[in-house]
Design a protein that fits this description.
The protein is α+β, with helices and mostly antiparallel strands and about 800 residues long. It is built from 13 helices and 49 strands. The protein folds into 4 domains: about 1-260, Immunoglobulin-like; about 315-475, Glycosidases (TIM Barrel, Alpha-Beta Barrel); about 615-690, Golgi alpha-mannosidase II (Immunoglobulin-like); about 695-824, Immunoglobulin-like (Sandwich), CATH 2.60.40.1180. Helix content is about 20%, strand content about 35%. It has a 19-stranded mixed sheet that branches. The longest helix is centred in the middle third of the chain and has 24 residues, at about 445-470. The N and C termini lie far apart (about 70 Å).
Length: about 800
């Protein structure tokens, strides 16, 4: 105790020595005289006392990043950098420094939140009117920066012209690495997922706390410097930057532990979602003997006729009745328009009986009937007569009551649109963003500019969670740090045609969707999808086909937008397109077959923040060929996906990383990485490769994809690609199952063994093998079937398809560890 007290006094006097803030703390503080060093078991922060420059290092002492200049307070246009450290005060898990800045002083706390997360927070004295804070970090040669925003081109304001190159006439620009860009940190339409957080290839991440707007210059103005320039929050009087230490997965784990773990939808939420931008009013058609909207009836009956799996169904705006004096039709109440949707209760019942979960469009608007209460009781946001003030508890309670009437009608999810702006007939109306716009909780428009999207998500999440627990799903267009806790996201109005759907067909919207999927992987938004075909009516059937292929491998597969977006009613010839019907059915079916894998990954990402669709750099961080590779990804760790986006292409170059990889469609073809290969890509094929040793859990119930037949229904299909020893942990609501695949000698023979942890279920196992002599389960022989058709008729057995080089085996487990052994 005496030693600690002496060291504390020494530190306060500016002398050298180590300070232990708490007997329970693993954080140590040392004042060397020239510097203050704060150290955890995983990272070290060093602040030079003479210059206030900061250096972040890993546990081994390797520098991760360091200041290019000391933190700088902007007082109007006058820069007041921190000049020196005047005093050092140890605190729990860190230190508080008093620094000079201009004629004033700043309290600078450096606190380890976890061994790998360190928060640095500036609190200027009250006499200094700070408007912005600038942080400058050195950009090392070859350093890559990831994350921040999904849109391909930064937009400095919300005007239409500034969206030109992202979503109106998209350009072939942008890559995974953000180095050389400037990015404005303000939530903008319509590609509206942002977070003030980037991840560096050097093993660290940086997150700016709070919700104030800002700007990143990622070594654009100066190739050696990253500049982070954010407005200062006068109300809180504090500015914080949090540094995370570790690889990409570790940094995301730390970031989402701080800002909120990603929401996990119920399992049914991962089935594909069908929607139309508008269900037209017209002559009703009958479904189950009842008159209903003809386009709804068309969707349901065509799915049944064509054998397309039942998924989820969304009614977009306009789904309620009427228009308003504010130019927004179709969202005036929470009742279906009886003209557009006659017999709506019967309509919802017909969908539910078929297994659909139903979504409706939602927005942060009080219009029509709802406008009466909003105006009377003051529920609107400041300077606005459309957007609701979700900081007002009375407004939230009122809105929640209205939202929950949807649950009573069987609605189990919302498409939450327009969380970042509202448009009227004549103008765009942003979330109130002036310093003079004061919301109910005292925050102003500068603070709310970015946080409104998160609040919008939280209010709707809370309303449904109060009634349904976790058995619901909202998907959103706009998001900011923390929004990931409350729903999943889609990529805004990505175009299949230019000029708001009135221009020429384009494949560049699909290109931007692939890029956005890669970017959100680094942002803590792991469940993301895109309007298949583009939000506007696509004009090129190839674009639609390739977009279907991409969407099938996205965590969220949603199909809809302007026009039918359906292969039986194409804008191209033939309108009823048999080839497109086959592609549509195949890739919707494939997405549903992958649900065990996708849902397992979603449960894992809720615990870790790790992405589901993973740019290769996550799994191959030391591979320079993966550092800026945006147009390939891994679904999990074993399935490599290489989407085709360019119209006319029937092959594409694929980078295959280290290891042995097997062509998903042609399992006899193996590639040894790392190398570039040319993959065949006819219009109906999405290039995919499985890692040798990979294990893919599938839910198969038809013969559409070739992964099984109707006899596979009710069993879990396990696709195995034996090489050495590998494993897969399947996460489900009921718990976890572990599968271990081994290819090794046994008793003088060559054996492939699949071990299944104790469970009670039926399995169809498909193993890629060159030959099979016999198969046993827990030492008991399985009966050989004469054909696959014969195998379909029995409960247990096996068949070796020599032409495909694949063993098929059926068996059930009875709550004990089970081993299937194939002897070659």
């Amino acid at each position: 105790m005496l030693r600690v007290l002496v060291l504390l006094l020494a530190a306060l006097a500016g002398c050298g020595g180590e300070v232990v803030p708490s007997a329970q703390s693993a954080v140590h503080v040392e004042d060397t005289g020239s510097a203050v060093v704060v150290r955890s078991t995983a990272a070290t922060v060093r602040v030079d006392k003479g210059t206030a420059a900061l250096t972040l290092s890993d546990a081994a002492g390797g520098t991760l990043t360091q200041s290019a200049a000391p933190p700088t307070l902007m007082v109007g246009d006058t820069a007041q950098p921190l000049l020196r450290v005047r005093s050092v005060q140890p605190i729990m898990n860190g230190v508080e420094l008093t620094c000079d800045a201009g004629s004033g002083s700043v309290q600078w706390t450096i606190t380890f939140l976890t061994p790998r997360s360190v928060a640095t927070r500036l609190r200027p004295d009250a006499a200094t009117t700070v408007t912005r804070v600038v942080t400058a970090l050195q950009a090392a040669s070859g350093e890559h920066f990831y994350g921040l925003a999904e849109r391909i081109v930064d937009a400095p304001s919300a005007s239409i012209s500034d969206r030109q190159a992202s979503e109106i006439v998209p350009q072939a620009v942008g890559s995974l690495d953000r180095r050389g860009e400037t990015i404005t940190m303000e939530v903008m339409p319509t590609m509206s997922v942002y977070t003030p957080f980037f991840d560096s290839s050097r093993g660290y991440g940086v997150y700016v706390e709070g919700t104030m707007p800002g700007r990143y210059d990622l070594a654009q103005s100066d190739p050696n410097t990253v500049v982070i320039d954010f407005e200062f929050d006068q109300r809180t009087g504090e500015y914080g930057v949090v540094y995370f230490v570790g690889g990409h997965d570790t940094v995301l784990d730390e970031y989402t532990a701080l800002t909120g773990r990603p929401f996990t939808p119920p399992r049914w939420g991962f089935r594909h979602l069908r929607w139309r931008d508008q269900h037209d009013i017209g002559t009703p058609a009958q479904l189950d003997g009842v008159d209903m909207n003809a386009e709804l009836v068309e969707d349901v009956t065509m799915y049944e006729t064509l054998g397309i799996p039942v998924g989820n169904y969304e009614f977009d705006r306009p789904w309620t009745s009427g228009t308003t004096d504010r130019g927004q039709p179709g969202f005036t109440s929470f009742d279906f328009d009886p003209i557009r949707f006659p017999n709506s209760d019967a309509m919802l019942g017909a969908l539910q009986r078929r297994g659909y979960h139903i979504f409706v469009f939602g927005a942060p608007w009080a219009l029509g009937d709802n406008a009466v209460d909003a105006a009377q009781f003051g529920y609107y946001a400041p300077r606005n007569n459309i957007l609701i003030d979700f900081t007002n508890p009375a407004a939230v309670a009122w809105w929640t009551q209205r939202l929950q009437t949807l649950i009573d009608r069987g609605i189990t999810g919302l498409k939450l649109d327009r969380g970042e702006l509202e448009s009227t007939v004549t103008e765009l109306v942003n979330v109130p963003d002036r310093a003079t716009d004061i919301f109910a909780d005292g925050r102003n428009g500068r603070e709310m500019k970015n946080d409104y999207a998160r609040l919008f998500a939280q209010v709707h999440y809370d309303a449904f969670a109060a009634r349904l627990g976790g058995n619901f799903l909202h998907y959103l267009r706009a998001g900011y740090a923390g929004s990931q806790q409350y729903g999943i996201f889609w990529g805004g109005d990505t175009p299949g045609t230019t000029n708001f759907g009135f221009g020429q067909p384009t494949d560049l919207g699909l290109r931007s969707a692939i890029l956005s999927l890669a970017r959100v992987a680094f942002m803590g938004f792991p469940i993301w999808g895109t309007d298949t075909g583009g939000y506007y009516q696509f004009g090129d059937r190839e674009v639609f086909a390739r977009w279907l292929e991409l969407s099938a491998l996205c965590p969220l597969m949603e199909i809809g937008g302007g026009g039918a977006h359906a292969p039986w009613n194409m804008p191209t010839q033939p309108a009823y397109d048999p080839d497109m019907i086959d592609i549509y059915r195949t890739y919707v079916t494939l997405h549903h077959e992958l649900l065990p894998l996708i849902y397992s990954l979603a449960l894992e990402t809720h615990a870790s923040g790790h992405p589901i669709a993973r740019p290769l750099i996550f799994d191959y961080p030391n591979d320079p060929n993966a550092a800026d590779l945006w147009d390939e990804f891994l679904l999990g760790h074993d399935l490599l996906v290489a989407p085709v986006w360019h119209t006319g292409d029937r092959s594409r170059t694929v980078y295959v990383p280290q290891g042995t990889w097997i062509d998903y469609w042609d399992p006899g073809s193996r590639v040894q990485g790392p190398q570039m290969v040319t993959a065949k890509a006819p219009l109906d094929r999405l290039p995919m490769y499985v890692r040798a040793g990979g294990i893919l859990p599938l839910e198969v119930s038809s013969a559409v994809t070739g992964n099984g037949t109707a006899a596979s229904a009710g069993r879990l299909t396990i696709d195995g690609y034996p090489m050495g020893v590998s494993s897969f942990v399947l996460r489900e609501d009921e718990g976890t199952s572990t599968f271990i695949l081994s290819d090794a000698p046994c008793g003088g023979a060559s054996c492939v063994t699949l071990s299944v942890s104790p469970s009670r279920r039926g399995y169809v196992v498909r193993l890629l093998l060159d030959s099979v002599r016999s198969v046993t389960v827990n030492g008991q022989p399985l009966t050989s079937a004469a054909s696959l058709a014969t195998l379909d008729l029995v409960t247990n057995g096996w068949f070796f398809d020599a032409s495909a080089g694949r063993l098929w085996a059926k068996f059930s487990t009875d709550g004990i560890l089970t081993r299937l052994v194939a002897i070659r």
